[in-house]
Amino acid sequence: MVMVLNYLRTLSLENKFLNLFPMLAIHRLLQGFNDQAKDLLINIFGLVLTNALGCVMINKPPTQLNIEPVERECLQGRFQNLSKMELINSFHEALRQLCRKLELSDSVLQNHMAEIIPELSIRLMNALENNCLDSIFISFKNNQQQTTIFQEGNKLEDERFRSIVDEIRECRYVSDKLAIIQKEIHSISDYMDILESYCIFDNEFTINLRVTWRYGISTSY
Q: Are 47 and 138 in contact (CB under 8 A)?
């Protein structure tokens, strides 16, 4: 149960960050990363945050997300002779600027964003050594294809949510509970609240994980 809730909290937190960016920009970033992005398990949060930090470092609006090849060369020149600690400090400063530009004051989200910096710095140093910075800072492609990304979904009003919880509690069979959840719950926030409402028991969590991905997957063009 704790693992499920922590997973959903992280997913909701990262989606809060992704909602600060235009959906089209995220689509094109994913396409730039891989033409078959819709078929892969991708850390969208990490990709978006990395390119947003790169945009900040070249004095470009972070919500544009695109890093052009010539801009990537500028970043390479900036990073080339920095130590690992200097890279980390550079990313932390860019993160502070990014939060100001996005007017992002959620300290929990800020801390979660900062957690990627040590690993990002290691990946960046390896990319610099192998001259493949394009694997870190992604450029958009000219073509626009179908892409699948996560969306939060609409949260229910309190009264409606309580009514659904009561309905689930009255169910005898897990299949009936699952049917109600699939029909009525359309956001990660509501799903987390359902798990904490004592209407689903430990042996039922595995079954209900099947519906977790349903809320946020949206296919757009």
A: yes
Please provide residue 66's backbone torsions phi and psi, each rounded to the nearest 5 degrees. Answer: -75, 135
Sort residue 60 into left (φ over 0), alpha (ψ -120 to 50) or beta.
Answer: beta
Which tokens belong to 79?
A: 């990073």
Q: 151-178 pLDDT, tens per residue?
A: 556 778 888 888 888 888 888 777 777 7
**Per DSSP, which regions of 83-214 are E strands?**
147-150
151 CB contacts (<8 Å, ≥6 apart)?
15, 216, 217, 218
Take residue 133 and report the two structure tokens written for it: 């910075």
Gap between the Cα atoms of 68 and 58, Å rounded:
11
Number of CB atoms found within 10 A of residue 150's CB:
20
Token pair of 142 as six digits:
């000219």
Q: Quick one: CA torsion of 21, 24, 27, 32, rounded to 10 degrees?
A: -100
CB atoms within 10 A of CB 48: 24
Look-up of token digits 């073509």:
143
Q: What is the pTM of this model?
A: 0.67
d(CA 146, CA 140): 14
Per-residue pLDDT at 204 exceeds 60: no
Can you state the angle between helices 158-169 and 188-195, rounded to 10 degrees?
A: 40
Instruction: State the chain's maximal CA–CA distance in angstroms.
Output: 65
First-residue to last-residue Cα distance in the chain: 36
